[in-house]
TrEMBL record, chain A:
InterPro entries: TFIIH_Tfb4/GTF2H3, vWFA_dom_sf. Component of the general transcription and DNA repair factor IIH (TFIIH) core complex, which is involved in general and transcription-coupled nucleotide excision repair (NER) of damaged DNA and, when complexed to TFIIK, in RNA transcription by RNA polymerase II. In NER, TFIIH acts by opening DNA around the lesion to allow the excision of the damaged oligonucleotide and its replacement by a new DNA fragment. In transcription, TFIIH has an essential role in transcription initiation. Gene3D superfamilies: von Willebrand factor, type A domain (3.40.50.410). Component of the 7-subunit TFIIH core complex composed of XPB/SSL2, XPD/RAD3, SSL1, TFB1, TFB2, TFB4 and TFB5, which is active in NER. The core complex associates with the 3-subunit CTD-kinase module TFIIK composed of CCL1, KIN28 and TFB3 to form the 10-subunit holoenzyme (holo-TFIIH) active in transcription. Residues 160-179 have a biased composition (Polar residues). The keyword Transit peptide does not apply. It holds the Pfam family Tfb4. Belongs to the TFB4 family. This is General transcription and DNA repair factor IIH subunit TFB4. It is found in: Nucleus. Its main location: nucleus. GO terms for molecular function: zinc ion binding. It comes from Coniosporium apollinis (strain CBS 100218) (Rock-inhabiting black yeast). Residues 180-191 have a biased composition (Low complexity).
TrEMBL record, chain B:
Pfam families: C1_4, Ssl1. The keyword NAD does not apply. PANTHER family: GENERAL TRANSCRIPTION FACTOR IIH SUBUNIT 2, GENERAL TRANSCRIPTION FACTOR IIH SUBUNIT 2-RELATED. SUPFAM superfamilies: Cysteine-rich domain, vWA-like. It comes from Coniosporium apollinis (strain CBS 100218) (Rock-inhabiting black yeast). NCBIfam families: ssl1. This is General transcription and DNA repair factor IIH. GO terms for cellular component: transcription factor TFIIH core complex; transcription factor TFIIH holo complex. Belongs to the GTF2H2 family. GO terms for molecular function: RNA polymerase II general transcription initiation factor activity; zinc ion binding. InterPro entries: C1-like_sf, Ssl1-like, TFIIH_C1-like_dom, TFIIH_SSL1/p44, VWF_A, vWFA_dom_sf, Znf_C2H2_type, Znf_RING/FYVE/PHD. Component of the general transcription and DNA repair factor IIH (TFIIH) core complex, which is involved in general and transcription-coupled nucleotide excision repair (NER) of damaged DNA and, when complexed to TFIIK, in RNA transcription by RNA polymerase II.
UniProtKB/TrEMBL annotation, chain C:
One of its GO terms (cellular component) is transcription factor TFIIH holo complex. Coiled coil: none annotated. Keywords: DNA damage, DNA repair, Nucleus, Transcription, Transcription regulation. One of its GO terms (biological process) is transcription initiation at RNA polymerase II promoter. In NER, TFIIH acts by opening DNA around the lesion to allow the excision of the damaged oligonucleotide and its replacement by a new DNA fragment. In transcription, TFIIH has an essential role in transcription initiation. When the pre-initiation complex (PIC) has been established, TFIIH is required for promoter opening and promoter escape. Component of the general transcription and DNA repair factor IIH (TFIIH) core complex, which is involved in general and transcription-coupled nucleotide excision repair (NER) of damaged DNA and, when complexed to TFIIK, in RNA transcription by RNA polymerase II. In NER, TFIIH acts by opening DNA around the lesion to allow the excision of the damaged oligonucleotide and its replacement by a new DNA fragment. In transcription, TFIIH has an essential role in transcription initiation. Belongs to the TFB5 family. The lineage of its organism: Eukaryota, Fungi, Dikarya, Ascomycota, Pezizomycotina. Its main location: nucleus. It is found in: Nucleus. Gene3D superfamilies: TFB5-like. PANTHER family: GENERAL TRANSCRIPTION FACTOR IIH SUBUNIT 5 (PTHR28580:SF1). This is General transcription and DNA repair factor IIH subunit TFB5.
TrEMBL record, chain D:
Keywords: DNA damage, DNA repair, Nucleus, Transcription, Transcription regulation. Its main location: nucleus. Belongs to the TFB2 family. GO terms for biological process: nucleotide-excision repair; transcription initiation at RNA polymerase II promoter. Component of the general transcription and DNA repair factor IIH (TFIIH) core complex, which is involved in general and transcription-coupled nucleotide excision repair (NER) of damaged DNA and, when complexed to TFIIK, in RNA transcription by RNA polymerase II. In NER, TFIIH acts by opening DNA around the lesion to allow the excision of the damaged oligonucleotide and its replacement by a new DNA fragment. In transcription, TFIIH has an essential role in transcription initiation. InterPro entries: Tfb2_C (IPR040662), TFIIH_p52/Tfb2 (IPR004598). Pfam families: Tfb2, Tfb2_C. GO terms for cellular component: nucleotide-excision repair factor 3 complex; transcription factor TFIIH core complex; transcription factor TFIIH holo complex. GO terms for molecular function: ATPase activator activity; double-stranded DNA binding; RNA polymerase II general transcription initiation factor activity. It comes from Coniosporium apollinis (strain CBS 100218). This is RNA polymerase II transcription factor B subunit 2. It is found in: Nucleus. Residues 404-468 form the Transcription factor Tfb2 C-terminal domain.
Length: 377, 511, 72, 476
């Protein structure tokens, strides 16, 4: 009967369902900062709220994944999935079959697993913190946590792609990592690989500590990597002051919220559920908080002054607020011994510095090339 | 064209091209396979198709998978094995990209042809280049019918160059015609043009020329050796990516302008390889203290200098206003810190006062060149057993389990007998039956020498090409950068708080 | 006052529409409520099924499908 | 009808059933946290989920003006869609306070249950009471998969068997199932497959299960005196259970105990013996509330899931088995008669080998399928979903020429499209007409309009009606 009626045949596009999404939470577990917050928002309460948030994320879609990393004072540590015991990170379902304890009747099984692992790992992290660790540092390993999170995301993205995963990361400008800045369609950018259900990922940083100057470069590197992978870095700033993370959220299109007053912090869960829960797909339809002014001015390396106009060393890109009197770059101009550490300074083989501008007349050899036309063959 | 070179050259440096003045017809005759007596292992691309089957070693179980995997890993790592020592690099670069638009580009050894492939890759290259070198300048030229044409002026805006490259095939204005490949290229003209374009480049920056050359000849109006000499004097550094075969003259250009190092001359074997070679040049070049090949007594004027730069703040406006750079109406942009002119994107030179305007993040983007991540090393089964690593430190991918320790000689011989027992035990595939592809680790683990963490191949590639951080070092108490000082006792508090339970009750009373 | 009429909107080629109009005229206007434009008709909901049936019969009689031979 | 197909993640059939339920019944249904979670996950459009989550822990009603400010102007259509589904499912309603601005609140029962689901609190036992089998003879996942596959394929065989030679005699399904298939109009009185049946066959397994369960849900209350709320909440509970875990039947209602037999016949659950008070959900059950994309994406994941798990042992390659070439030739690496007969629905099969069949997609074969009520999109999605791993490496998966041609073959037969709905006429003023048309267009209801005649056609009227009364109220 419907042979001549095409009505029902044109309707749906089944690819329309939202892609699975991976949420990586970086929880700053800096004991110093949480101690200060303990009156208004103890860590346990924050973690309870975070668990509700994670469960909410998981209930959006069966295929949604979650990962939690603690950014502790001296190290970054996986909280979920638990590292070491042989288990695959991307298939939480498998856990169910191997868990010794039976699921509870009042808890969705997946939620229960995450809750238990997260709490176990978190208390292990806390209990393993020695007084010596505490005295050695006051801030948190956000760069390490970000690096781990990004590596994990890059791997998860590869796994979720139905294509042969081995070929993808071969060139760094492949589709996963292609440049985020402009030009939506990009015929030149390698071979386009359509995915049936690409994984969209995002990172939420729950931060309570301030910036760590020594981590500037690794944090920046992480931000750029996130930018290339189009992973938004959402930041929930409960305490402390960080320019890095604000820049991170801005550069990657993430959400930056800083509830500073104690009463605002009490509403942590509402911030999470409304501000950070929407995934990339939902964000397209929502007015997300953000924008605002981001401080992009640079701090000079010599006096930590924030400058509008600065002087940059052409070799090491150090920024100075005024022309240097000795004419030697404070960062690289001095003779440096070759450190064995990773972040060794660039080796500059010493050579007498000449602040001499190259003059046109100095050119030896050939005459000035003509910039007019080229001679014909 | 087919007759112009001989596929099966056993000659070591490939074909030599004589670049003679005014010799239009020199092309064909100049080529010849001259046996030199020296022998050299054939390149893969020289040996033709039938040799491909040899390249894939068959595993003892008759399976190609493992050897393919090793090849793959080696290939992935190939680019990583370069920059690991912190050396001074020319972060501020002035680059002229020269594309070959001569007849040779119509060759169909890449699909659909070299011309289109090159244009596509050049666009990706420009984007990647500015991603890696945000404060550098570029200029695009093309060798077409004996001439060298300037496609875009020296500037730091990738969009200009991409538009110019696209304009080769699809011209923006009706006046221009699409430039189909035609005639022969002239390296001399190209170098002279590039030299002119780079003449005003400041002393603290590099002057680089990157040539994609499809042809096997250069049809020059004069003595190219003189041009090479003047390029050397002008501190130009030329890198050439050839197609089809190596050319003596290209090798000479590269060697002379790079202080004797001709590694910047590469011949691509296929499209993938072309991309790899191009992308390799996005890494800023190493600064040499003095160029030994420099004949003149003048020291290289590689003087580092202090540059004045503006760090403008972003503004948002309620009403749109014209930007100084494109005369477009925009709502917001950046105000030049010196003259308060509005520009719409950074980095760029202020159109009014000429000061370089930049974000501090742009500078930060280049830091990884200055502080590169050190290479990770392959891990032997022995070492893997020592550390007992089971999964990648960063992404938690499982490593193949460490096989049972075997007698050392059995390991060496890698007999089929041991294989049998191994698989029977459910243990992993046999170890070391044949030399692994270079760069691939037999245990699929890669170790960071500072933190001794093990990573998988994908994280190795990812961390070295994209992230530039070592997840292990940064998350390890001994290697992570830290500040000092503290107050104790807080841990106890925290632990107490946790024991109270991160219970599953209603997290917060909101009703 | 705005009114809402329940019914079925039929969209088709002008050629098909002509056939539909003919069916309607032959049966004494029991199908179509309104002829909206070249490609659109507004039809009584209860009659859609039988209209389709009639169209199918008409098409089978008039249009000859050129069947492909399916040969390799 | 159209609206439900727009809802991105929702399962259209199940959604329609739920929307047909009266508010009190839904309220009753939502008391189970597992149901609330399943409805949330499976039935709601993406934006609706976001809105629900934002409101879940909100102390006060969500002001309509705040909601409008939160959602981008260009996403109005999605917003309206989301609100419509939410209200029709009685999850959200407009605040009852007479004065004051318009605001939304979540239904009490739903909000409470969803919060309980997220936090795992409360005394309900809606996520199943786990239980260990006596004597420790644990049922492994493979047994469950085998059981599910066997039972489900039997049903499919039964349906296909009526058309294809060589498949009969393989199916042994219970009389109850047979009559259910008949009631659902999948087969006719004589056991021959109908058009609905063909459509059914080409669906994904998950959609098939739902189709069957919905027939069950619609018919069982009358025939077997079962409570539909009980049935539904049991179905939703099954979706939240854990594969490989045994559950006790002790705390099930009588209706639900009755269901166990039927669900066992379908292969949705497994009971080692009828005496022990224990049942195991199979993969068919545990993936009930996952949506299609979840099933797809998991194909790449290391764990065998749904499709893969089910197809696993039936002799065919565990994932895809079909290769389609640009010349319309089709090679299917399968031994399963079921798969072969499904292919035969729209392919001209030419050769049968021990482990594969070859055939050709021809105009006649495809149009024959279309005449039987199968759509081009169903064929295409079937081919794509079962494409051989080798095919998956290319993009798009299927050769575009073939995909286009299948569509063209279908369009050739399409002579008209019909849309049932309402014609809006006799607008008093141009302004009124214009506003209403614009509204209809933004919410995606507009099908046709004529500015000259000042009338337009929409496929649903509820929203238009409320818009017009709001508009009138605003004017007054």
């Amino acid at each position: 009967m419907n042979a001549i009626d095409g009505t029902d045949r044109h309707v749906r596009d089944s690819d329309n369902s939202p892609p699975p999404s991976l949420l990586t939470v970086i929880l700053d577990t800096n004991p110093h900062a949480w101690a200060l917050l303990s009156d208004t928002l103890p860590l346990s309460k924050a973690v309870a709220n975070l668990l509700v948030f994670i469960n909410a994320h998981l209930s959006f879609n069966h295929a949604n994944q979650v990962a939690v990393i603690a950014s502790h004072i001296q190290r970054a540590q996986w909280l979920y999935p638990t590292p070491h015991p042989p288990r695959s990170s991307s298939s939480p379902e498998e856990n169910g079959t191997s868990t010794p304890t039976p699921p509870s009747a009042t808890k969705y099984h997946r939620f229960a697993i995450i809750e238990r692992e997260l709490q176990d790992n978190l208390s292990r992290v806390i209990s393993q913190t020695t007084a010596a660790d505490l005295t050695s540092s006051t801030t948190t390993q956000i760069a390490g946590a970000l690096s781990i999170a990004l590596s994990h995301i890059s791997r998860a993205t590869q796994l979720s792609s139905p294509n042969d995963s081995s070929g993808i990361s071969l060139d760094s400008t492949g589709p996963t990592l292609s440049n985020p800045t402009d030009t939506p369609t990009d015929p030149a950018d390698g071979t386009p690989r359509a995915r049936r259900s690409p994984l969209t990922s995002r990172i939420l940083i729950v931060s309570v500590s301030g910036d760590l100057a020594a981590q500037y470069i690794p944090v920046m590197n992480s931000i750029f990597a996130a930018q290339r992978q189009r992973v938004p870095l959402d930041v929930l700033k409960l305490a402390g002051d960080t320019v890095f993370l604000q820049q991170a959220a801005d550069a990657t299109g993430g959400v930056y919220i800083a509830p500073s007053s104690p009463s605002a912090r009490a509403g942590l869960l509402q911030y999470l559920m409304m501000g950070f829960l929407p995934d990339a797909r939902a964000r397209a339809a929502l007015v997300m908080p953000g924008g605002g002014e981001v401080d992009f001015r640079a701090a000079c390396f010599c006096h930590r002054r924030v400058v509008d106009v600065g002087f940059v060393c052409s070799v090491c890109l150090s920024i100075f607020c005024e022309p240097l009197e000795e004419g030697e770059c404070l960062t690289c101009g001095t003779r440096l011994s070759l450190g064995a550490a990773v972040a060794a300074k660039p080796v500059v083989v010493p050579r007498p510095k000449k602040k001499k501008k190259r003059k046109v007349g100095d050119i030896t050899g050939t005459s000035t090339p003509m910039s007019a036309g080229t001679p014909g063959p | 064209m087919d007759g112009e070179y001989i596929q099966d050259v056993s000659d070591d440096d490939g074909v030599e091209v004589a670049s003679r003045s005014g010799n239009n017809g020199a092309a064909g005759g100049a080529y010849g396979a001259r046996a030199r007596g020296r022998t050299r292992a054939k390149e893969r691309w020289e040996s033709g198709i039938q040799a491909d089957s040899i390249a894939f070693g068959e595993g003892p179980d008759g399976n190609l998978a493992e050897s393919l995997e090793a090849e793959e890993q080696a290939r992935k790592r190939a680019r990583l094995r370069q920059d690991n020592k912190p050396v001074q690099r020319g972060i501020i670069r002035h680059v002229v990209l020269i594309l070959d638009l001569s007849e040779a580009m119509l060759e169909k050894d890449m699909r659909p042809n070299r011309y289109i492939v090159t244009i596509n890759h050049a666009q990706a290259y420009v984007r990647e280049f500015f991603e890696q070198n945000p404060i550098s300048q570029m200029c695009v030229m093309a060798m077409h019918d004996g001439l060298c044409i300037r496609l875009s002026d020296l500037s730091g805006n990738p969009a200009d160059h991409i538009a110019a490259i696209q304009g080769i095939r699809y011209p923006k204005s009706a006046r221009q015609a699409a430039r189909e490949p035609k005639g022969s290229p002239s390296l001399q003209n190209a170098l002279e043009m590039a030299r002119a374009a780079l003449y005003h480049a400041p002393s603290h920056s590099t002057r680089e020329v990157i040539i994609v050359l499809g042809a096997l000849l250069s049809n020059d109006p004069g003595d190219i050796h003189k041009t090479i000499k003047s390029c050397v004097n002008d501190r130009l550094r030329v890198a050439i990516i050839g197609m089809g075969a190596r050319l003596r003259i290209c090798q000479e250009i590269c060697a002379k302008t790079n202080a004797g190092d001709d590694s910047v001359y590469g011949v691509c074997q296929d499209e993938k390889n072309l991309r790899e070679l191009l992308m390799a040049t996005t890494t800023p070049p190493v600064i040499r203290q003095t160029a030994p090949a420099l004949p003149s007594s003048e020291p290289t004027p590689n003087a580092a200098s202090l540059l004045m730069m503006g760090f403008p703040s972003r503004v948002t406006e309620s009403t749109p206003s014209l930007c100084a750079c494109h005369n477009n109406l925009t709502r917001g942009g950046y105000m030049c810190s010196r003259c308060q002119v509005k520009v719409c994107s950074l980095p760029r030179a202020c159109p009014s006062c000429g000061m370089t305007l930049i974000l501090s993040t742009h500078l930060a983007r280049s830091y990884h060149h200055l502080f590169p991540l050190q290479s990770w090393v392959e891990v032997s089964w022995k070492r893997a057993r020592e550390l007992g690593s089971t999964e990648c430190q960063a992404c938690m991918t499982h490593f193949p389990p460490v096989p049972e320790p075997q007698e050392p000689d059995a390991m060496q011989e890698g007999t089929d007998k041991s294989t049998g027992t191994d698989t029977a035990n459910g243990a992993p595939k046999p170890v070391k039956q044949r030399p692994r592809a270079e760069g691939a680790s037999e245990s699929s683990r890669y170790e960071c020498r500072s933190c001794h963490c093990h990573f998988c191949i994908d994280c190795d590639v990812y961390c070295h090409t994209v992230l530039h951080n070592c997840p292990g070092c940064l998350s390890n108490p001994n290697t992570a950068p830290t500040d000092a000082e503290t107050n104790p006792e807080v841990v106890a508090e925290m632990a107490a708080g946790l024991e109270n339970g991160v219970n599953g009750g209603e997290p917060m009373d909101m009703e | 006052m705005v009114k809402a009429l329940k019914g079925v909107l039929v969209q088709c080629d002008p050629s098909i529409k002509a056939i539909l109009l003919k069916i309607d005229a032959d049966s004494g206007n029991e199908y179509i409520i309104e002829d909206l434009d070249e490609e659109t008709l507004f039809v009584k909901e209860s009659k859609v099924a039988s209209l389709k049936e009639k169209l199918k019969v008409t098409l089978r009689e008039t249009v000859r499908e050129n069947t492909d031979s399916d040969s390799e | 009808m159209n609206a439900s197909s727009d809802t991105m993640t929702a399962n259209p059939q199940a959604l329609e059933v739920l929307q047909g339920f009266p508010g009190t019944k839904l309220e009753q249904l939502y008391r189970q946290p597992s149901t609330a979670l399943a409805v949330f996950r499976r039935m709601l459009p993406h934006l609706a989920k976001t809105i629900v989550m934002a409101m879940l822990y909100m102390p006060n009603p969500f002001l309509a003006s705040d909601l409008d400010a939160w959602i981008r102007p260009d996403a109005v259509a999605e917003k309206e869609q989301a609100l419509l589904v939410l209200t029709s499912l009685h999850i959200m309603s407009t605040s009852l306070q007479a004065q004051g601005p318009r605001a939304y609140i979540l239904g009490k029962a739903f909000a409470k249950s969803l919060r309980q689901a997220l936090t795992g609190s409360g005394e309900h036992k809606s996520f199943g009471v786990p239980c260990r089998p006596p004597g420790n003879d644990v049922v492994d996942v493979k047994t469950l998969d085998d059981h599910a596959r066997r039972q489900w394929e039997d049903i499919l065989y039964y349906m296909v068997g009526s058309t294809t030679v060589g498949v009969e005699g393989q199916s042994h399904i219970s009389d109850a199932t047979k009559s259910l298939l008949e009631l659902g109009n999948f087969v006719d009185k004589r056991g021959r497959i109908t058009q609905t049946g063909f459509t059914f066959l080409l669906q994904e397994v998950n959609a098939q299960v739902w189709s069957l369960l919905i027939v069950y849900l619609n018919r069982a209350p009358e025939l077997l005196k079962m409570d539909s709320v009980d049935i539904l909440s049991f179905i939703f509970m099954l979706g939240s259970l854990e594969l490989g875990q045994g559950y006790s039947t002790a705390n099930l209602s009588s209706t639900q105990k009755q269901m166990l037999d039927d669900l066992g016949d379908f292969g949705i659950i497994y009971r080692p013996s009828l005496k022990t008070p224990i049942f195991y959900p199979t993969r068919l059950a545990t993936t009930l509330t996952s949506d299609a994309s979840a099933l797809h994406s998991s194909a790449a994941a290391p764990t065998p899931t749904f499709d893969t798990g089910l197809a696993g042992g039936s002799g065919a390659a565990s994932k895809g088995y079909i290769i389609v070439e640009t010349n319309y030739r089709l090679y299917a690496y399968t031994e399963s008669m079921l798969q072969i007969s499904v292919l035969a629905l729209f392919t001209r099969l030419t050769m049968l080998f021990p482990n594969m069949v070859t055939g050709r997609l021809t105009k006649t074969s495809v149009q024959r399928a279309i005449a039987q009520g199968i759509t081009a999109d169903q064929i295409i999605s079937y081919l794509a979903a079962h494409a051989h791993p080798q095919m998956l490496k290319s993009t798009p998966v299927l050769p575009p020429t073939v995909v286009d041609q299948i569509r063209l073959w279908q369009i050739e037969g399409d002579r008209m499209t019909t849309t049932s709905g309402y014609m809006m006429i006799e607008f008093a003023t141009e302004a009124e007409y214009r506003d209403t048309v614009e509204y209809a267009e933004t919410v995606g209801l507009l099908v046709w309009k004529s500015d000259a005649k000042r009338c337009f056609f929409v496929n649903r009227i509820e929203q238009i009606r409320s818009f017009m009364s709001n508009r009138r109220a605003a004017r007054a």
